[in-house]
Design a protein that fits this description.
By secondary structure, this protein is α/β, with parallel strands linked by helices. It has two domains: 147 residues, Rossmann fold, CATH 3.40.50; 180 residues, 2-Layer Sandwich (Dihydrodipicolinate Reductase, domain 2), CATH 3.30.360.10. Helix content is 36%, strand content 24%. The protein has ten helices and 15 strands. The strands form three sheets. The protein has a seven-stranded mixed β-sheet with strand order 12-11-7-10-9-8-15, covered by helices on one side. Strand 13 and strand 14 form a beta hairpin. Helix 1 packs across helix 9 and helix 5 packs antiparallel against helix 10. It is globular and about 55 Å long. The protein starts with a strand and ends in an 11-residue tail after the last strand. The model has no long low-confidence stretch (mean pLDDT 96). The site of (2R,3S,4s,5R,6S)-2,3,4,5,6-pentahydroxycyclohexanone (ISE) has 6 residues, from helix 7. Keywords: NAD, Oxidoreductase. GO terms for molecular function: inositol 2-dehydrogenase (NAD+) activity; nucleotide binding. Its EC number is 1.1.1.18. It comes from Actinomyces urogenitalis DSM 15434. Involved in the oxidation of myo-inositol (MI) to 2-keto-myo-inositol (2KMI or 2-inosose).
Length: 335
């Protein structure tokens, strides 16, 4: 069967997903696009012969939409995710699942009521080949247990609208989810340190920051979030085991030799760096929807990540104090 997909949110990310579904993936077609700006929905839908709506509800209830991709701002995710669940439709929601733990819990409640896992959160790094190789080394167990993980999340620049909170809920949230998935355990406490600030930042922004987390078993994780580093989009990760250290491979795409010397070309954005991961993520999701199955991260994962974000933001706003992560008991539904 061809899965008929509707997109809510016709911004850059949503349009990139449409192009990917249309050009690179099998088993799906785009039948509708919704955006509160109807012209944006129309221009995104037109190349695919899809319908355009100015509201998400009409799209979610459209009988020609089998499954929904949500690529709007995090703050408005929750009501649409719940509408998808109530309509019995699979939904891939870009991160964050929601911006408050309460909203995530409401999503989990609706999903449990529906009795079926319908929600996938767009944490694409779970589909990145290098992170998967790293996880395979850890899970094999030959090199002992995980002790520490060092992360670096560097962006070339951010717009003036980017806030200090976004360093956590928009940027570090990727490491928060990836570390939970990699280590297979929850993060229990967090603090946010402030190194010397860069002069390259907008005045309102605290940049860089270092998010320091500890897991249930005591693994210590550090994450340098540094979003005005100019040179490129660079994601680094080193997992320290008892008798080995495992690092993500080089992320350069090509090697250049010219008048400036020998060098590697850097990725410039997450779309560039994680292109293959996005493709694998979406193809797995389409295949799973077609088979009536769930894939990828669950609403519980979305909730747990948001709970860590909440604790980190509290630390950021309180001079880097250590904050415990408050999690409800994990429902058996999400075991
Ligand atoms: C953006 O939303 C992302 O998801 C990127 O992966 C991250 O590097 C960037 O900082 C965020 O703004």
């Amino acid at each position: 069967m061809t899965v008929r997909i509707g997109l809510v949110g016709a911004g850059g990310m949503g349009r990139a997903h449409l192009a990917r579904i249309h050009n690179d993936l099998a088993g799906a077609k785009i039948t509708a696009v919704a955006d509160i700006v109807l012209d944006a929905a129309r221009s995104a839908a037109e190349p695919y012969g899809a319908k355009a709506y100015d509201n998400s509800e009409a799209l979610i209830n459209d009988p020609e939409v089998d499954a929904v991709v949500i690529a709007t701002f995090g703050k408005v995710h929750a009501p649409d995710v719940i509408k998808c669940i109530e309509a019995g439709k699979y939904v891939l929601c870009e991160k964050p699942l929601a911006t408050t733990a309460e909203d995530c819990l409401a999503i989990m409640e609706a999903e449990q009521k529906a009795g079926k896992k319908l929600v996938t959160v767009g944490f694409m790094r779970r589909f990145d080949a290098a992170y998967n190789e790293m996880k395979a080394v850890l899970d094999k167990g030959d090199n002992g247990e995980a002790l520490l993980v060092h992360n670096r999340h560097r962006n070339p620049s951010v717009p003036e609208s980017y806030t200090s909170r976004m360093a956590i809920d928009d940027t570090a949230i990727h490491e928060i989810d990836t570390m939970r998935w990699l280590l297979g355990e929850e993060i229990t406490e967090v603090r946010v340190d402030r190194p010397k600030l860069t002069t390259r930042r907008f005045d309102h922004l605290i940049d860089p920051v270092v998010v320091v987390m500890r897991t249930e078993s005591g693994v210590l994780i550090d994450d340098e979030v540094n979003v005005n580093l100019e040179y490129g989009y660079s994601i680094e990760c080193e997992l320290v085991l008892e008798n080995a250290a495992v690092r993500l491979g080089d992320q350069e795409k090509i090697f250049i030799r010219d008048i400036h010397g020998d060098r590697n070309a850097m990725c410039q954005s997450h779309i560039d760096r994680f292109q293959a991961a996005f493709t694998t993520e979406f193809q797995s999701w389409i295949n799973a929807v077609d088979a009536g199955e769930h894939t990828g991260s669950t609403s519980w994962d979305g909730y747990a990540a948001t709970a860590v974000v909440d604790a980190a933001v509290e630390s950021l706003e309180n001079d880097g104090k250590v904050v415990k992560v408050a999690l409800v008991e994990r429902p058996a539904f999400y075991a």
